[in-house]
Amino acid sequence: MFALVSEEKSMTHHQQITHSRVLVTGGAGFIGSNLCETLLAQENEVVCLDNFSTGRYANINHLLANKKFTLIEGDICHAQDCQKALAGVDYVLHQAALGSVPRSIYDPMATTQVNVGGFVNILHASVRAKVKRFVYASSSSVYGDYPYLPKIEQHIGKPLSPYAISKYTNELYAQNFSELYGIQCIGLRYFNVYGKNQNPEGEYSAVIPRFISQLIRHQSPVINGDGKQSRDFTYIEDVVQANQLAITTKNENALNQIYNIAFNGQTTLIELYNTLIDLLTPLDSRIASVQPIFGTERKGDVRHSYASIEKARQLLGYQPRYSIKDGLEKTIQWYWENLK
Ligand SMILES: NC(=O)c1ccc[n+]([C@@H]2O[C@H](COP(=O)([O-])OP(=O)(O)OC[C@H]3O[C@@H](n4cnc5c(N)ncnc54)[C@H](O)[C@@H]3O)[C@@H](O)[C@H]2O)c1
């Protein structure tokens, strides 16, 4: 009994960053703002570097009054902004990027400038600032056309979009810089993250917030293709946990590695749609009768995405806590309160 309690406590202890100064790039975005909030609650100083290209003040307004929070409106592509943001920083959680596969197909240069040029810039600035560790967001899109499931870190296919190439390039630079300059890096391949603060609006919004906001307004969501494509949807709090573990791990073997961060579940878009209808109908019975529209398949999309999380489990102690249903319940509650 005692052993169990202390084990549980020490697990919680290890996965928290505390009394450190942490730079969160892209801190006004969906994942970044959730990281900022948790880090501040754990008594860290947080520097948020964001140029608000896709980030939103609404995500961080409530943090501005906190004396331990510093907002720097700047660009990861600008050396001076990076240098300023990195002053006195212990750890970097690098989230800033232009997300979205379709955006990268429409404007490959913009994606490449920010996701590759900006990445090298902030990584090199972090080397010069002698940070203790650099943890960065990679993506499941790196698996490209690799056909076998579940996806395992060392087996990747041909990338299917400029976005996927940009994220794979990040992994190559991180590995190279750790060898050249000795910086400790950890890459997290996120799989379709969802939860509070994710932007539901705009052409490049992600499927879960878009569907929820449309259903709340009784509009028909568009399912691209036949709806049988699947995703390993990952709740934001599990992603926050993974970042904390990556920063705090003392396991030498865990450093300079790349990890799948997912729930390890497979959900088709049709199943997602039906679950959303089931969860939203008790809040508004009219939602039950909203029918989806089936659109054309999207270019550049991976057909099935389902992660093995064994590596993160073994080397980092990662344990996702939110099934798709549990995560969606919390997410819907937040959108219901914030969109209505
Ligand atoms: N959300 C997901 O499902 C998912 C999946 C895989 C990978 N990722 C990666 O996770 C990271 C965070 O994604 P997100 O969903 O929070 O996206 P987001 O668009 O909400 O956040 C990205 C943030 O980066 C900022 N930014 C963009 N360009 C910048 C620049 N040049 N300088 C400074 N700030 C800049 C944006 O303003 C925004 O606040 C990204 O690197 C993304 O590629 C996300």
UniProtKB/TrEMBL annotation:
Limits of the NAD-dependent epimerase/dehydratase domain: 22-262
Protein origin, superkingdom: Bacteria
Entries under SUPFAM superfamilies matching the protein: NAD(P)-binding Rossmann-fold domains
One Pfam family this sequence matches: Epimerase
Family of this protein: Belongs to the NAD(P)-dependent epimerase/dehydratase family.
Name of the featured protein: UDP-N-acetylglucosamine 4-epimerase
Organism: Thermoflexibacter ruber
